[in-house]
Amino acid sequence: MSVTTPKGPQLAVLPTAAEDDTRSRVQVLQPSGWPMPKGYANGMAAEGLIVVTGGVIGWDAEERLADGFVAQVRQTLSNIAAILTEAGARPEHLVRLTWYVVDMDEYLSNLKELGKIYRTIFGAHYPAMALVQVVRLVEKAARVEIEATAVIPR
């Protein structure tokens, strides 16, 4: 049996915010030579209990949607944080977020404020993320829907 060395870029594993937590097995994957992403990770590796949310939107417990895109993002991220807490997960356990927005320009024109909201709720932990523009969401007045995946170390 022969062993070959991959010819692709070298892979760096960066410590997460919880690097001093010896139970943490969530790692940021950053190929060497690639520029550092801003506000997301290129990849994540994790081992443990998987926590997956459905598509979460920006409504409260009475199913009232927040008014406007930024307010809906704030409520959506708060709702995700509540679901993670229910499972015993913390923000640093997030490994993936998939955002669905009905207006990409609305997202792009609010990046600074969205970043502040994100950091207020989840801190400076940035999982792998994808952003997709969709024609509409199930709830007609919803402007954003986000799916989250977290891994709680065992």
Describe this structure in words.
- The termini are far apart.
- The model is unreliable at 1-23 (pLDDT under 50).
- The strands form 2 sheets. Strands 4, 5, 6, 7 and 8 form a 5-stranded mixed sheet that branches. This protein has a 3-stranded antiparallel sheet with strand order 1-2-3, with no helix packed on it.
- It is an alpha+beta fold and 154 residues long.
- It has 3 helices and 8 strands, in the order E-E-E-E-E-H-E-H-H-E-E.
> Ends: how far apart?
35 Å
Q: Major sheet, described briefly?
A: 5 strands, mixed
Structural category is alpha+beta
Count of helical regions: 3
Helical residues, percent: 10-25%
* Overall outline: globular
Tell me how many strands there are. 8
% residues in beta strands: 25-35%
Uncertain parts: 1-23
> How would you state the average pLDDT, rounded?
87
Spell the H/E element sequence.
EEEEEHEHHEE
Radius of gyration: 17 Å
Descriptive terms for the model:
single chain, alpha+beta, five-stranded mixed beta sheet, three-stranded antiparallel beta sheet, globular, disordered N terminus
Please specify the SSE layout and strand pairing:
Elements: E1 11-14, E2 27-31, E3 43-45, E4 49-52, E5 56-57, H1 69-87, E6 94-101, H2 104-108, H3 111-122, E7 128-133, E8 144-152
Parallel strand pairs: 6-7
Antiparallel strand pairs: 1-2, 2-3, 4-8, 5-8, 6-8
Helix pairs in contact: 1-3
